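INFO  loader      accepted 1 record
INFO  loader      residues=346
INFO  predictor   begin
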Amino acid sequence: MRARTYYIVAIISLILIILWLQIALWPIGGIWAIITILSNPTNVMVWLLPAFALFGAAYVLRAIRWWVLLRPFNTKGNPANQFPMLVGGIFLTYVAPLRAGDIATPYWLREKQSTRFTAGLASIVWARVLDFAALILIIIVFGFLIFGAVTGQIFTYLLSGTFVAVAFVAFFILIRNDRFVGLMSRIAGRLFRPSERLKEEVPSFVENFAIDLRTDISSWNSGWAFLLSVPIWMLETVKLTFIALIFGEIVTIPQSMFVLGISYMTGHILAILLPAGISIFITQTLTITTLLGVWTAAAASIALLDAMVYIIGLTILGAPSLATMGRGYRELQEAEHSEKPETMED
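INFO  predictor   done
INFO  writer      dumping tokens
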């Protein structure tokens, strides 16, 4: 019991240290500018509270999407009781390096709902692929829209709309194609293939992961999950637009979509080494400065407030979620210990 207490204290201390490091890396001028602007109640009511509402709506859609991706595995859960696991994992990814939350989420799913770890991991991996697919689609389409607005060419708008329709149809055909599914399974098998020495210790992990990934990809649920990925990032984009308007920076929806797509793609790649909160702040500041021509201080303030919305929102949602996961795990352990004496008596 004492060792478990030390473990929980160590985890909480690590999270607090990482949060402190993130705040230490932020520019003092940007923090002061945010405090000055948010001292106006109008900015809070008109712009910041809607940003938090959009943040919450996006995470409700994320929970529904994960539930859709888990349906082929006949899990016992629903979006409501799977929500703490998902948000708790994203919270860990945001404050800790090495994408720790992507490993913790399927572990919690296995402990709480008796779902195979490889099935949960496959659903998380495929959700990240769908995120990248949606972001790539957004970058291309809204890049066309920005180009059309600058040049005044109506044909560009028609071309972008045609591209959207073709991309959706092509993606749905692709995920149902057996050759594509087999190719993805082979790639996954090669990436996670254990050495000969480890095959005796983990004889079926790679095979189960490849099978579960193939099941998720080949299911029509992937199509629905992709359809949910697009509005998720639309909500994230409108949130960034609200935050930019607080600082008086006029950012249109196409511009916001384009910048957010690039910053989130590069930020989540860097999140393999850094906490996602730091990596996304860096890439968002650079893309806003470079692509929108905003002063570095203003771009850093926009990215900083967006990061603060994430940290506050994930703390409100994620900290209780982690506590729920810990309490559920303790209840499961106590139930197992209470069952052992009865088995011995029989």
